[in-house]
């Protein structure tokens, strides 16, 4: 029996009570960022009110407390994603920062002609850092094509793999289409040619159970703000021996062992990748978000969300001139669509007037928009705190907006 009670859980998210243009907020833009529970918000306050000090430095009481809380956050997050050691958790600014770290650092070890494989549904954050690397080092970027239904062309993927492939960097769940990519297959194939694998989990950590050791990926990145934590903090998971074998990304305080003007030696991972004072409050609050998730019946929460996604799709599909972008059999509760010739921005604006937050545009996936020959989409992306009543209201508002714009 499900022990997930959505109306109870909604009370933990104060913003959900907000009124927008006089209407109750219906927040369907969780793909852009998630809302925060009181537990996370008050953890930030508690840190600054009672515990604030710099980490890894002072001998004094507060610094020791802050260091402990910061390192406990690492341990808690390691355990949430099934890492074998807290040392495999590097705190970053977010997904973008994590990918750039690896693109720079691993990139230093790559040679002219080495290949990096990404997919046609990547976020710009998993495209541009590789293009910068290719310009810098003469590596080659290859792209797995996306099929009409919004899944990856797995035959083309197998053909693209070779002993030149040094890294597969692929999104777990598409932020635009909701497609869940077959990571097990992708990782197994990539490993068979000796490639490393990085997973962009920015849209999966908050929707699916993740265990990095079962997956067998080498790196995995996500952003705190999309998994009910604060902005400005994220996680780069990396296998420990691999992290230790990579050169540092940025230099500065905290990442060094010994510094002289002649030669500097570095800390081991993860500190080697955390130059400068880190986002201490962010890391602690992100850990609190995972404590919060652990306090829920997560399996039921995820099931609730998937049921909502199916309900949304079922209720939208018969609306006149409705076109879904992406109809993969395996998706999260994220849905991109267009209606006839109506511009996504116009639809988004009218929905906003009715209190509904959706995202419109290219969703930082311009190449994917080119693939479907469209300028953008309207995207509804759900979280476990959304309800069936909100979807019913959304459908009414959507019909009204379509009517006004047709
Ligand atoms: C949001 C997102 C990113 C970028 O995350 P930031 O928090 O902006 O660094 C990368 N990939 C995917 C799939 C995303 O949804």
Topology:
Layout lengths: L5 H5 L8 E2 L2 E2 L1 E2 L10 H14 L9 H20 L8 E4 L2 H11 L9 E5 L8 H10 L2 E5 L9 H7 L4 E7 L11 H10 L3 E5 L11 H4 L3 E5 L10 E5 L1 H6 L10 E4 L4 E3 L13 H16 L2 H19 L5 E4 L8 E6 L4 H10 L2 E2 L1 E3 L4 H6 L5 E5 L6 H18 L1
Parallel strand pairs: 3-15, 5-6, 5-7, 7-8, 8-9
Antiparallel strand pairs: 1-2, 4-10, 9-10, 11-12, 13-14, 14-17, 16-17
Helix pairs in contact: 2-10, 3-10, 11-14, 12-14
Bound molecules: pyridoxal-5'-phosphate (PLP).
Structure description:
By secondary structure, the chain is α/β, with parallel strands linked by helices. It has 2 domains: 6-30 and 298-405, Aspartate Aminotransferase, domain 1, CATH 3.90.1150.10; 41-294, Aspartate Aminotransferase, domain 2 (3-Layer(aba) Sandwich). It has helices spanning 6-10, 38-51, 61-80, 95-105, 128-137, 154-160, 183-192, 212-215, 240-245, 280-295, 298-316, 344-353, 366-371, 388-405; strands at 19-20, 23-24, 26-27, 89-92, 115-119, 140-144, 165-171, 196-200, 219-223, 234-238, 256-259, 264-266, 322-325, 334-339, 356-357, 359-361, 377-381. It has a 7-stranded mixed β-sheet with strand order 4-10-9-8-7-5-6, with helices on both faces. A 4-stranded antiparallel β-sheet has the order 13-14-17-16, covered by helices on one side. Strands 1-2 form a two-stranded antiparallel sheet. α2 (38-51) runs antiparallel to α10 (280-295). The protein starts with 5 loop residues before the first helix and ends with a helix. 46% of the residues are buried. The mean pLDDT is 97. The protein binds pyridoxal-5'-phosphate.
